[in-house]
Amino acid sequence: MGTVQIRNARKAYGAVEVLHGISIDIEDGEFVALVGPSGCGKSTLLRMIAGLEDITGGDILIADRVVNNVAPKDRDIAMVFQNYALYPHMNVRDNMGFALRQRRVPKPEIAERVSAAARILGLEALLDRKPRQLSGGQRQRVAMGRAIVRDPNVFLFDEPLSNLDAKLRVQMRSEIKELHQRLNTTTIYVTHDQIEAMTLADRVVVMNGGVIEQMGPPLELYDRPASLFVAAFIGSPPMNFLSGRLAEGDILLMADGTRLRLPVGDPKRRSEVTVGVRPEHFAVAETGWPAVVSVVEPTGSETQITARIAGQTIRVLVRGRFSAPPETVIHLQVAPEHVHIFDPAPLPDLAELEDVA
Amino acid sequence: MAFMSRTPARQGVAGNRVRIAAGIAVSVIFLFPVFWMVLTSFKHQVDIFTNPPKFLFSPTLETYVEYMTRADINKRLANTIIVAFGSGVFSLLVGAMAGYALARVRIKGAATFGLLILLSRGVPPIALAVPMFLVARKLGLTDKHITLILAYSTFLVPYVMWLMRSFFVSLPRELEESAMIDGCSRYGAFFKIIVPISLPGLISTMIFSMILAWEELLFALVLTNRHATTMPVAIAGIAGDTINGANWAALTAVGTITVVPVVIFALLVQKWLIKGLADGATKG
């Protein structure tokens, strides 16, 4: 059984605590993505599960066994690294069979399992090559082959697609998903790319500053972000935010005096709030929030409009065609279930999130 | 892999000629003393002292025959081989593992510790030679191969350790981590993954160590007197024996005998030597 339980795991380097008590229960066969900006502790957590970092506090259980003091080799896990970490002096066949040789698996069985894995990943023609003779995508595939040959309890992926170009990344992403559907091995996948997390995982864990911001199925995070951070982090293009003061239950009073009537009120909240609406949830209508168009960008299937409400820039995504000259005033409507009201907090720096590679 | 790639330098034909000329000039400056030594070793005593020096003379193998048939010289050559090989292997084993620990293990003060070991090389060897002699005598270890091997390790181990440390630092940590997940212990990962990858660096480091041990004079002079004496001591003996005037023919012939094995050895391993040096260069 490939279950993983993380119970109040903490990690400190000297006096500096970087993980402040993380708890996640991962079921057998589940695909969990740990996502967050660099420095949020996601890779550290993965390395603690692998046994490459000590656990300062709490417990980590793999297959119902506490592994806090178990050596990496005895945890029955396989890991794919960002730089692949292929053994440069061995050919693909030996790279893939290395773990089995360490475990003294009989030679005929090694050969059989390596060729089975090579068949799954389309590596049969490359078995006699050295890693330096392979392209990035091929190296990536060998690294995955090395993991699946083992048939471990858990797969750990540490930003496995970050070193690939955009096109290959999308292709490998669906290969990883297909592989998981086929093998159904418990997988923990670390990435800073929320699209990767959303598309691959059964459950996404959003981390920030050494704590879990929110975890749940991808669409739940998208539909009901628990915090401003998650709202800003999940979704592309990102959610729009308008800040102001909540008055009379459902009026957003903005700095320049503009009053926006929200389709849904929150009588419990009073003072400063941030209202979030995803670009694709706006509809252009006859009435609604007035917005001044700055740029209209048609892409064929959809049109992206950049506009201003009370001086605050928003993005609107509409299906189909739309055109309007700059400085036109349009009206936007939002369904009640698509309005998110948050306490104001500093927004994560999305530009930084996007170009971490 | 990235650490094996090299960028070819682009240069014009004229630039090439200048480089070649400069290379030849430098080689002449470095090699002339060696050339003169070899030349002198084939001269009769009368030709050696002619002024101006003669480039054309009737060569003789007289000195070679005399010294190569002498049992003491052969014994010393054998000693030199044993000591150079022994200290090369021993210091590589100890130094490489120490260098790996310095490169990878996170211990407080590891950097300071490494620096202290390096600083120990700043102590003048003569200051160590006398205490070493006293310790060796107390242990009954004077005039033995093992004594010289251990004595040479005092300067070879720090040397190997620092060279290999910078080599290991340039290797991605994930290689060992991957090996450790695949079923190796830390030692297993070192010997099965890191050592094979580092072979060019390890071998070139060992070759340099052996050459340093081969030519070492001071410790050999102090710590041995008959059985374990090496070639440099023999040369020093001939140079110091001036009762009948300086015996240049003997000095240069024995010097040549000492140098030739190193040259042959270097030619045999030059593939490794060049690869190792170049790797070190591109890795910084």
Automatic annotation (TrEMBL), chain A:
Record carries keyword DNA-binding: no
Keywords: ATP-binding, Nucleotide-binding, Transport
Pfam family, any one: ABC_tran
GO cellular component terms, A-Z: ATP-binding cassette (ABC) transporter complex, substrate-binding subunit-containing
Gene Ontology BP, a term: carbohydrate transport
Domain of life: Bacteria
GO molecular function: ABC-type transporter activity; ATP binding; ATP hydrolysis activity
Domain ABC transporter residues, every copy: 4-234
SMART domains in the record: AAA (SM00382)
InterPro entries according to UniProt: AAA+_ATPase (IPR003593), ABC_transporter-like_ATP-bd (IPR003439), ABC_transporter-like_CS (IPR017871), ABC_transpr_MalK-like (IPR015855), ABC_transpr_MalK/UgpC-like (IPR047641), Mo/tungstate-bd_C_term_dom (IPR008995), NA-bd_OB-fold (IPR012340), OB_MalK-like (IPR040582)
Homology family: Belongs to the ABC transporter superfamily.
PANTHER family in UniProt: BLL2173 PROTEIN (PTHR43875:SF10), MALTODEXTRIN IMPORT ATP-BINDING PROTEIN MSMX (PTHR43875)
Protein name (database record): ABC transporter ATP-binding protein
Species annotation: Seohaeicola zhoushanensis
Upper classification of the organism: Bacteria, Pseudomonadati, Pseudomonadota, Alphaproteobacteria, Rhodobacterales
